[in-house]
Write a structure and sequence with these properties.
Distance between the termini: 44 Å
Radius of gyration: 19 Å
Number of strands: 5
Order of helices and strands: HEHEHEHEHEHHHH
Shape: elongated
Helix content: 40-55%
Largest sheet: 5 strands, parallel
Length: 231
């Protein structure tokens, strides 16, 4: 297939395989990494709750595919406006397509048929599809039997969110790379007063980085409290 740019998305540099803390998810990570690298690897259905790293893995796969000389696209269904079936049908022409949040189209007859046709088209072309949802396939209200069957034939990778200790370690590492010292007092306060899924915490770290640099101040609980209050 011809080279094609990703769908209007700037992929954060931290969303790479090397920045993914696998925890208990090493097998799932390797399955997605393999699919990114070659068209002969099995396709993967990634399931996991918010904060488990589904989007991170799909975007990492797209970047890894590009690094391997393949073209790649990423389609976040949950964030789309307008016709999702049209968006799905428009995602042709890449060696790898990662479709996020397919649970958001469960019960949408047109979108389910579009996904089924895309599945068959990519299979015929010898290319790669990756899927993600917030729950395992059995929990999704997909009404098209043939689509459910196709998705069920894939490698099923169920992600478990990192525990608090692992999330704290990731935050410390990412903060240290930015020259920010997050001590235990700050982390204790943060984990009590802020959403604790890793994606949201890392987004906050980006904000902290900019704010502390602009204010020329170290990150303390009062500084963090005022920042969150202003936001």
């Amino acid at each position: 297939m011809t080279n094609q740019l990703p769908l209007a998305l700037r992929w954060p540099r931290r969303q790479r395989f090397e920045h993914f803390r696998p925890g208990e998810n090493a097998v799932a990570v390797e399955a997605v990494r393999a699919a990114a690298g070659t068209a002969t690897a099995p396709w993967v259905f990634v399931a996991g709750p918010v904060g488990s790293g589904r989007t991170h893995l799909l975007i990492a796969a797209c970047q890894a595919a590009i690094d391997a000389g393949r073209s790649a696209q990423y389609l976040p269904l949950a964030g789309l406006r307008g016709s999702r079936s049209a968006a799905i049908r428009g995602m042709a022409g890449s060696d790898l397509l990662a479709i996020d949040d397919i649970d958001s189209i469960a019960g949408d007859n047109d979108a389910e048929h579009a996904l089924f046709d895309t599945f068959n088209g990519y299979r015929a072309e010898g290319c790669t599809l990756l899927f993600s949802a917030s729950g395992a396939l059995a929990s999704l209200d997909i009404i098209l039997p043939d689509l459910r069957s196709r998705l069920g034939s894939l490698t099923q990778a169920v992600l478990k969110p990192l525990g608090d200790a692992e999330r704290r370690d990731v935050l410390r590492e990412q903060a240290s790379a930015r020259g920010i010292d997050l001590d235990d007092v700050v982390l204790d306060w943060l984990f009590v007063h802020h959403a604790r899924d890793l994606g949201t915490l890392l987004d906050l770290l980006d904000t902290l980085d900019r704010a502390s640099l602009a204010a020329q101040r170290r990150v303390t609980v009062p500084f963090l409290r005022n920042l969150l209050k202003s936001d």
